[in-house]
C-alpha cells in the first residue's frame, strides 16, 4: 500500500491519527495475515480511558476490528468481501 491514514475518535482526548499503525500498514503487504499485530500497534498510539460507554480494552479491540474489516473489504486481487454478504 502506498499510503494509509487511520484516524480514530473516542480513543484520546481528541480525534487522533494512529501513526504507528499507518507506518506499519504502508510497509507491509495488504493481507489479513500481515495484520496480526494491529492490537499492539494501536496500543502504541492510544491509551484510551475506560468509562460507562466502554472499557479501554474494548475501544482498542473495536478500532482493530474496523481496520481488519477495511482490509477485508478492500483486498486484492480477489473480489472485495462485503461482510454483509456472510
Keywords:
3 helices, mainly alpha, 2 strands, two-stranded antiparallel ribbon, 86 residues, Enolase-like, domain 1, globular
Structure, described:
The chain is mainly alpha-helical. It has a two-stranded antiparallel ribbon. The protein is 42% helix and 5% strand.
Give me a quick take on this structure.
Helices cover 42% and strands 5% of the residues.
Tell me the number of helical segments per DSSP (H or I, 4 or more residues long).
Answer: 3
Strand order across the largest sheet: 1-2
Unreliable stretches: none
Shape assignment: globular
Radius of gyration: 13 Å
Q: Give the helix/strand class.
A: mainly alpha
How are the SSEs placed, and which strands pair?
Layout: E1 7-8, E2 16-17, H1 19-27, H2 38-45, H3 56-74
Antiparallel strand pairs: 1-2
